UniProtKB/TrEMBL annotation:
Keyword Transcription: yes
Domain HTH araC/xylS-type, residue spans: 175-273
SUPFAM superfamilies hit by this protein: Homeodomain-like, RmlC-like cupins
InterPro entries named among the record's database cross-references: AraC-bd, Homeodomain-like_sf, HTH_AraC, HTH_AraC-typ_CS, RmlC-like_jellyroll, RmlC_Cupin_sf
A single MF term (Gene Ontology): DNA-binding transcription factor activity
Protein name: Xylan 1,4-beta-xylosidase
Lineage, top ranks: Bacteria, Bacillati, Bacillota, Clostridia, Lachnospirales
Signal peptide: none
Pfam families: AraC_binding (PF02311), HTH_18 (PF12833)
Keyword Ligase assigned: no
CDD domains documented for this protein: cupin_RmlC-like
Keywords attached to this entry: DNA-binding, Transcription, Transcription regulation
Length: 276
């Protein structure tokens, strides 16, 4: 879940959407993007969402909508249960005229208590329940609820943005770079390599990367590495030194500082907390 890259979204068999209900502890997903719109609904706990240049905190029974090709990431500092629904671009494009220029409202903090907002929360709660139970014919019920949510979203919280394609083109220029990092993060990656892949000079590449992604290229690479390190710390009994080496981190001091800033504890403390 943690890469500042293009995310390949899977669908439910026989259904045109991706849906997942997961539980995690101190979860961290570095910024990434995809063509799908994404609906994040917090079942319990709290979740930080970074979307574009803004940061939001979602509490239990709150949701957030992420538009197509919008760079975003998430992080939790406690145990959290989340419903994640992703709707393919082609699905919405087949029903909404000029969908390429349509954007949806993302944050609903000011809608607390409104009838439409409460209705949308109720639908997401039902979707989470239907998906968890997976009873006979659940796919039909789930899609009915999803489509009702999308109908309210489109008819009440959508607008046209004629410059929507500009940001998408900038992201597209970084696509090969992000895929390269995802494939080669275990090895040393030079800034020049990345700039060459994007067919840009280094100075312009650095400025565009920071503008699009919110972090420098080096910070991004280290975030991807830290994500994998975090997963291996919880999933294996390998030594911390071996895990760092396996994931391309050569400077322990830099790693230690970044890890504690990201998760609020050291790797050893994280492992001990999981054991308890």
């Amino acid at each position: 879940m943690q890469q500042y890259t293009h995310e390949n979204v899977r669908s439910i068999p026989h259904l045109p959407i991706y849906c997942n209900r997961y539980e995690d502890y101190r979860q961290f997903s570095p910024r990434h993007w995809h063509d799908h719109i994404e609906i994040i609904y917090v079942v319990s706990g709290s979740l930080q969402v970074v979307c574009g240049e803004n940061e939001y905190t979602l509490q239990e029974n709150e949701f957030f909508v992420i538009n197509s090709n919008k760079i975003h990431g998430t992080q939790s500092y406690e145990r959290v249960r989340v419903l994640l629904v992703q709707i393919p671009y082609v699905y919405l494009d087949s029903y909404i005229d000029d969908y390429g220029h349509i954007r949806f409202r993302e944050c609903y903090e000011t809608e607390q208590g409104s009838r439409k907002y409460e209705q949308m929360k109720s639908l997401l709660k039902s979707i989470a329940h239907i998906y968890r139970k997976k009873g006979k014919g659940y796919e039909l019920r789930l899609m009915a609820k999803v489509n009702e949510f999308l109908y309210i979203l489109f008819t009440n919280y959508s607008y046209k943005e004629m410059n929507a394609g500009k940001e998408s083109r900038q992201i597209a220029r970084l696509k090969d770079v992000l895929r390269y990092v995802a494939k080669n993060y275990q090895e040393p990656i030079a800034l020049k390599e990345a700039a060459d892949i994007a067919s840009l000079n280094q100075d312009y590449f650095c400025r565009m990367f920071k503008k699009c992604m919110g972090v420098t290229f080096l910070e991004y690479v280290n975030q991807v590495r830290i994500n994998h390190i975090h997963e291996e710390l919880l999933a294996t009994e390998d030594s911390i030194t071996d895990i760092l080496e396996h994931n391309g981190f050569t400077n322990y001091k830099v790693f230690s500082r970044m890890f504690k800033a990201q998760f609020g504890m050291t790797p050893r403390e994280l492992r001990k907390l999981q054991e308890n």
